[in-house]
Amino acid sequence: MRITMRPSSPSLREGLAVAELFAGIFRRDVLAFYPQSRLEPIGHNGVPTVLHPGPDFQILEPPTEAENELEVSMFGLRYALSPRPGGRFSSYDLRMIRAIGAVLSLRYHHLFQVAHLSRIELFRGGSEDHYVAAFVEPQGYAPTTAKPSRIASTILTLRTAALSTYENRRVSTGALLLGPGDDPRPAASPTPPDALDYVAELTSLKSIHRLCDGGRTLFLVDRDGKLADIIDVERWATETSTSEAPAIPCARIYSAHARATQSGGHICLVLSPNQEIKLFAGGLQAFAFAHGRWRILDPAAKFAVWEAATSQPKLARILFQTALDLAESRHGGLLVVVNEVEEAIDRLIARHDMLTPEAPLGPPRELTPGDPLAKRTLHYLARNRDVTELAPAVLEALAGLDGALATDREGKLLAFGAILRHDASSLPSPTTAEGARTTAALVASKFGPVLKVSEDGVISCFLNGARVWDL
Q1: I need a surface site. Which of 194, 373, 412, 461 has the fewest CB within 10 A?
Q2: What is the pLDDT of residues 205-239, one digit of tens each?
């Protein structure tokens, strides 16, 4: 239904005020996920003659190969949504934009439905929490939905738990939310009749923080939001998954969490010891809440870019896995795959840092043990090694040293703990304001694909002198 009004009508001015209010909220929250995007009105610089009575959010023009801009509609008013310069909206991004529109539309309708049971829950917690929930489970925010979102409620529960301590230690916990699919476990037990709701109020019970650590054990939440059981996540994943590793790498300590969501539509949410909230769905980690904001990870698309750049699937997976493990342990690192080794020697990697047979053996005799070049005495531990054959823990230890770990295209280890050579003055002025590791990554990416791991847990990929994604 549409309401047609004259421009001079006071009710139209009130309607436009509401429309602009929700458009402003939409703009603010889209910018929170996509800081460099722009939302601008199309064709209604004056006052329109037709205004819809509800948001009726739609994406009118999905982007094409030649056009990156989106056209969206709210209250019948059209807006142009543009990505950051040089960027594109992926299918993940379109899904998130639709989720933001769906939550705002539902909130608008609930403003006039005071008696609706899920009205209060829709306004509890952060708006971003509901956007993430609507992304993962769109049906939970359909206009006809009768129940509040279990995902948003679980996020609020984890947020509340993060404010608590147990025996002077930060709380870590997690929950596996049963999906709509059949439970594949042979001995699945029904929810006890006196089961409690898994909600934020449950965190007031101090003993509950000891029952589940989020790493080895998870709370099992049934389809009605009841706390049904405590499960061993590794055992659950073994019983429900047909693979021993996620299709897309994730941090090794959360491999079972990802596998637990590969089938059945299950969703796993974890509050980690780093006080980061992780959301697993579809066999991969889809979101992370850290440093006060949600990040869309889209690891499948980002791993595909990295894998294509290295041209070696096994090497790509191992280095990607190592970067994820370093990020989870909050250790920085720099992983470089060198395209042409001879070009990199002395231009990027000092000859004395190379592990190749022609490199000098051992440090010069005149060096003192504290001299940086004295680390050559340890080169024999990694000389003539292939990173695809190293134990994961050993590779992580080598990659976690100050400096860079470099391999050739076949995975042969060229250097570890190497201080890369670069001329920062040759880089654009905004780049020179970056940290030393970022500057080194930008320069090294001219010699081959690079993964940079920050100590705050963010992984960045650099190709051909540019940052192409953050994870």
Answers
A1: 194
A2: 888 888 899 999 999 999 999 999 999 999 999 88
